[in-house]
Model the fold of this input.
Amino acid sequence: MSVLDPLPTLQERDWPPFSALELTDALSSCSSRSSPGLDHITWVHLKAVLEIEKSVQLLVTLADACIHVGHWPKHFKDSVSVIIPKPGKPTYSTPKSFRPIVLLNTVGKLIEKMISNRLQFDMIKDDLVHPNQVGGVRQRSTKDAGLFLTNLVRTGWAKGKKTSMLAFDIAQFFPSLNHAMLLAILRKQGFSSFVGRFFASYLIDRFTSYLCGSFRSGPRQADVGVGQGSALSPVLSALYIAPVMKLYHMQAVALKTSLLLYVDDGTVMAQSKSLDKNRETLKDAYAVLLRLFVAIGLVLEHSKTEYFIFDRSHSDYSPPIGLGYAPYTGKDLLKPNLYWRYLGFYFDRKLLFHEHVRYYSTKALSSVKAMKMLGSSTQGLPPKEKRLLYRSCVLPIATYGYRLWYYEGARCKKALSLLKTMQRKAGLWITGAFSTSLTGGIESLAGLIPVHLHLQKMAGRANFRTATLSDTHPLRSILSQDHHKGAQPHPCAISQMSEAFKRKVKGTVMEIDRHLPELTESFEPVASEARPGARLMDRFPDQVIFDDCGSLLEQDALEARERDLFTIFGNVRLSDNTVYCSVDASLPDNTHCNGLCNYSCHSAG
Done:
């Protein structure tokens, strides 16, 4: 009996041929500065070659042949692994102190990106991954995971409950994925038999050469797990671990826990009015998880397990937990941390995020100080480029995770003060002003938005981003009924709250739910018509003609353009098989006025 038997077998989906549009979409997302593999073909060279239409057709044909024949050429399996030491390690006598960077052949990476884009669409459209998987899945970021966790904690507080977390790590995740199990999971999830045969060839007979300094080894076999450095690695790993997520929620219903997974970093949450009860629940949940991971060939690294408690009461009671597995057995218990670092966020017991803001504002301030070597008030970079450098490289660091602590009604005066101090230093560097200058004047001269207004602007955009998320996104499961779409409501969802209870809960998710009705547009990110390979431009590229006006025209050219459009429109009215679509937009010089846009569609009918 297989561990996958309790899960339903999905109907096999078709796999349409690749299109030129899919190739150009994948190519546009590739950085031209990535290092090449053994073929020494850079992305700059490949992009230049693929400007020729015949080259595009040849590469599309090659990609189709790889899938339908079920073969991945040996040329694409060979790679170079550059060994880089991890910074800040006390010793470099163990392999874990180094990070391998895998350099693959460029043409193969492009085809892998095309396949990855299709798998990503199917993963979300057909619910192949669990909603609480937020790593390796499109539109599911670390910030979404942070919002999900903090909202559950604050909702639990409003119910008088305390929250305990157990964070675990999967040992050697990518190299440990079992090929036979992965192929069985792909069949279970309804992928075409062509796809299964392709991955059976893709995963084996891989070789890599190790490069460390001036030393370079000969080819070594490296066909364990899924190859790192590939666009397919995060997708295959997400598909591989999805059955564990689904089976856990089937087998651990009575525990009433919440499981969240980001690639190989998992978190299980227990809530009740007693920390001792939470501890026992987490211990049982950990045992269930360990059994499921072992069943699919993965092992939890017990020494990396972390334990944390969220409690806003004045009590310091923090009972340790014994996992029943070394090193946390007998008298050696796992004690709660003072701060919990997860996905780059620094959580504290009362969700004040003082340590988080202090860490990132200090990191940003250090970057500003380091930038002083690039220019002063008399030499080096001009102010305009200093401002660009600050906004693009420093400000994103300082504001990382701001949505966890910045929301309507939040008490964040201390956090804003730290960020204002950092931005003042940046403003002094950009303008070269005296250190006694007023902060408002410095920001005005440097063209910097005050920190609180910048956060307010980004928060407004982030609120409306939620409307573009897929139907089963984890954030949708904790919103009100109107915004659930296809998501299963969580017990802590807003839809389960009374109006009186909603007033007790504070946080970003509550703010998002209040502002979403302001957006009138509707979005379907994984509509059937948007599936790669089945889109209009995928199926009928030769039957769609774009007639772009280009830049602004002089009066004579504009009149000629108008006559041409009337001619085209007249021809359309005489043809039953033609549709004419026109779009136009206008942006005013005055930034206080809104832009205008218009579209129209015409056919003979």
About this structure: The first strand starts at residue 78 and ends at 85.
